[in-house]
Structure formats: structure tokens, C-alpha cells
Specification:
This protein is an alpha/beta fold and 448 residues long. It starts with a strand and ends with a helix. It has an 8-stranded mixed sheet with strand order 3-2-1-4-7-6-8-5. A 7-stranded mixed sheet has the order 11-10-9-12-14-13-15, with helices on both faces. Helix 1 packs across helix 16. Helices cover 46% and strands 18% of the residues.
Length: 448
């Protein structure tokens, strides 16, 4: 069996990279991923091209987008997956086993990620209703044999209830679905934005109206799509690049002036990545959190060049300073990502994964090879930075223990490397040759 996963998107820059990253194991086993975009204005298409086999444009609307994706699919089975939904690792084998029993279509059970506890009850009700009625929702990851889907003519071109209409057509033509007990995890953003009980009532009213024969176009106007999740603030911790105060481990080998220049290069590279992410809608406001103060000429130049706000780090140690910066952003009603300036591999796609993780988790971390982390993000206040022995190999381990004690949910992104020691310089020069070319004299001895 070859699976074609069709993902409809519209302004999903904060979710799509994480969704597609989770599908990478399927692609590695020869399955296919197709993104069908409905005219996104953010970086959705750019991010999708890096991780999907095909990206196709279609008129806006899940039904038309999914039909466009299905039209170019080469797999035996189509799986329609929302952009804010994650498949279980066993998805392909589960589908194959279900189809081997003679079923031609089916869906997964669903878990709804989010803060309100009632979402667990909502998911249970959705799964139970689907088993009783033989009707699946799009959040459950509907799969169907491609030939059967084509024979039905695909999704009906309606703006709402396309999943219900397809389910009913499949049920009439070929029988009830395979109801898999393995679970997809979908975002609870709609319930969180509107309130869980209000959303439940609205959904039941819509389903009742559709059952009574109301026009789907009329129903769609009563229930607008969820608003785009506000982009998190991006906080960048940086020091004034004064020789002798930054990159001191490098300075012992290449001199204080060269080390300070390398540090400045790293800061500028990080600010360029941040600016790209802001233009793509991945992050919102960018704050350069300065130490020891914000009066240095370099800070002023970076503010003017990259259009960032300057803030002063406050706190007695790194943990206190991070806690203060993150809490200040959360107090303004926005989620927050915090990064340093030492990790060349950290790019816009990595920030997109982090931003997407905050839609379903209390925290996100980007671990570093040295045992610390290059990124931390919070969607709610958490007290996890106390009593951490900073600049040791145990930073991430100790932080995990704090997260468990706080009963927090978190996601860890792929581990990255950073530039701290002379041995890291050759790696940095190879990773960013353009940066190294401008400072050959400064880098030369360390690279040798």
C-alpha cells in the first residue's frame, strides 16, 4: 500500500512545518505528502515546499483544496489531514491493516490538545458519535481508497460539512467506516478561542441545520473559521559585543577582538533570521533583550537596521532574566519564544515548529548538543528556571524535572549545535562560509 497524505492549508505558517515534520517518517518509507494551499498570505507555501512532495494551489475551501490534492495523488489510499493535526506513528500500518479486512475507508479516533479539561470529553463524544453514526469528521483523519474516492467524484464542493457529506456518500455506497482506536491529535484552538461550551452548541446547531436541509453556504456564514493564532513574540538575548566580555572561551585562543567580532556576526545572523520569520508571520514583535544595558552603539545600530525593540535583561542569573522576559510578554497576552544568538542552524523553519508547538503545549524547548537549550517558549507562566546550574551539561535534564513538577506539557524540537569553543569555529565557517569570508584573518587561527 502506498499512502498519499493530502493536507489543505490556509495561512498555517505556525503549524505546517510541525505537521509536515511529523510526516517525514512516512515519506522515508515511500509514502507521499501533498499540500493543497488555498491562497495563503504567510510563509505556508514556502515552508511546505521544503517538506512536501507536492504543493498545489486551489480555490479557497477545504473541499476544493482536498480535491485538487487528490487529483495529483499517486498513492493507493488517500488520507486527508488537517494542517493542525498530527498522525500517530503507526498510521500507515493501522490503515493497511484496516483495509486488509475489506473496508474501503475509515478514520482515527481523535484527541483534542488544549487547556480546557472539557476538551477530553469533547473528543470522547466525537469518537462515540462517529462509531454510532458511521460519519467521520475532518479532524479524525479520513482515509479512503483512491479509486473509491474518484468514483464518488471526490468531496462535494460545499464550504462546510464536506466531511459529513463524503462520509454519508461512502456509507451508502460501500458501507460503514473502519473506526481505528489509535488517535490523531488535533489542535483545540477553535474551542479555546470561542469557548468550549459555546463551540459545542454551535457545532450541534450546524449539524442539526444540515440534517434538516439548510444550505451549507448559509451555514458557513454562521460559523466563520477560527482566527489565525496570534504570532508569538520573539525575545533575543544578546550582550554588548565589547572585547573581553563576550565569547571568552574563544578569546583565549583567538583574542578578544576576534571573539567579539564573531559574536557580532552571530547576533546579526540571528536578527536576520528573526526578521525573515516576522515577515513570514511566524513571529510577531521582536525584542532584543540587552545586557548589561541597552546603551551600546551596537544595540542602537541593530535596532535601526532590523526594526527591533530594545529591552534590558533583568535578574540576578540567567534563569531569572529569562523568566522576567517571558513573563513580561505573557502579561501582554501573547505567547513568547526566547532564543540566544549562538546557534547557526536555528532558522525560520525551526521557529515555525516552535510557534506551532505553543498551540498545543505549555512550553517548547530547542535542546543544544552541550546539554542546554538554544530556544525556550511558553504559552503560559511556568516556574521552571529556578535552581538550574547554568552552563553545565545538565541544564535540559534539570529543566525537564522542573516541567514534570509543574505538570506542564512540553515539546522538544531537534537538537542543534551552537558556537562556544574554538572547535566550534570550523563548523561555523563551514555552515556560513559567507560570514567567515568577511573575517578570514579573525577566524584563520582558530579554524586551523
Amino acid at each position: 500500500m502506498r499512502l498519499s497524505v493530502v493536507v489543505p492549508t490556509l495561512d498555517e505558517a505556525q503549524n505546517i512545518d510541525g505537521t509536515l515534520a511529523a510526516l517525514a517518517p512516512l515519506r522515508a518509507r515511500g509514502h507521499e505528502v501533498i499540500v493543497a494551499d488555498g491562497g495563503s498570505h504567510d510563509a505556508t507555501v514556502t515552508l511546505a515546499r521544503a517538506r512536501a512532495d507536492h504543493v498545489v494551489s486551489a480555490p479557497r475551501g477545504r473541499a476544493t483544496q482536498m480535491n485538487a490534492g487528490a487529483a495529483i495523488a499517486g498513492g493507493d489510499v488517500l488520507l486527508f489531514l488537517h494542517a493542525d493535526t498530527r498522525l500517530p506513528p503507526s498510521a500507515a500500518s493501522d490503515i493497511e491493516a484496516a483495509l486488509a479486512t475489506g473496508r474501503k475507508w475509515g478514520r482515527f479516533d481523535v484527541t483534542i490538545a488544549g487547556q480546557p479539561r472539557v476538551l477530553q470529553l469533547v473528543a470522547t463524544m466525537i469518537n462515540a458519535r462517529s462509531r454510532i453514526t458511521g460519519v467521520a469528521t475532518g479532524d479524525q483523519g479520513i482515509f479512503v481508497a483512491r479509486q473509491v474516492f474518484a468514483a464518488l467524484g471526490g468531496y462535494p464542493s460545499i464550504p462546510l460539512m464536506e466531511d459529513v457529506a463524503l462520509s454519508k456518500a461512502l456509507r451508502r455506497r460501500i458501507g460503514r467506516p473502519a473506526c481505528l482506536t489509535t488517535r490523531v491529535v488535533t489542535s483545540g484552538r477553535r474551542w479555546e478561542q470561542r469557548g468550549p461550551w459555546r463551540t459545542i452548541v454551535e457545532m450541534w446547531r450546524l449539524r442539526l441545520g444540515y440534517w434538516l436541509g439548510a444550505d451549507p453556504h448559509t451555514l458557513a456564514r454562521r460559523y466563520p473559521p477560527p482566527t489565525t493564532m496570534s504570532a508569538p513574540a520573539l525575545l533575543i538575548f544578546a550582550k554588548d559585543p565589547v572585547p573581553g566580555t563576550v565569547k571568552t572561551r574563544l578569546a583565549s585562543s583567538i583574542g578578544a577582538t576576534a571573539a567579539a567580532q564573531i559574536y557580532s556576526d552571530l547576533v546579526e545572523r540571528t536578527l536576520a533570521v528573526a526578521s525573515d520569520a516576522r515577515r513570514a508571520g511566524i513571529v510577531g514583535d521582536i525584542e532584543l533583550c540587552c545586557a548589561p544595558d541597552a546603551n551600546g552603539a551596537a544595540f542602537t545600530a541593530w535596532r535601526d537596521r532590523f526594526g527591533v525593540a530594545l529591552m534590558v535583561q533583568q535578574g540576578d542569573d540567567l534563569g531569572a532574566r529569562m523568566q522576567h522576559a517571558l513573563n513580561a510578554a505573557l502579561a501582554r497576552g501573547v505567547k513568547a519564544l526566547l532564543i540566544g544568538t549562538d546557534s547557526p542552524p536555528l532558522d525560520s523553519a525551526y521557529l515555525a515548529q516552535a510557534a506551532g508547538a505553543l498551540a498545543t503545549h505549555d512550553a517548547v524547548f530547542g535542546p543544544a548538543e552541550d546539554g542546554g537549550y538554544v530556544l525556550v517558549g511558553l504559552s503560559r507562566p511556568l516556574d521552571v528556571f529556578d535552581h538550574i546550574a547554568w552552563s553545565t551539561p545538565d541544564v535540559m535534564t534539570a529543566t525537564r524535572a522542573r516541567l514534570i513538577a509543574e505538570r506542564a506539557t512540553w515539546r522538544e524540537l531537534p537538537t542543534l549545535w551552537d558556537v562556544d569553543t574554538p572547535s566550534d569555529l570550523a563548523r561555523f565557517a563551514a555552515f556560513t562560509p559567507a560570514a567567515a569570508a568577511g573575517h578570514t584573518a579573525d577566524y584563520g587561527e582558530a579554524i586551523k
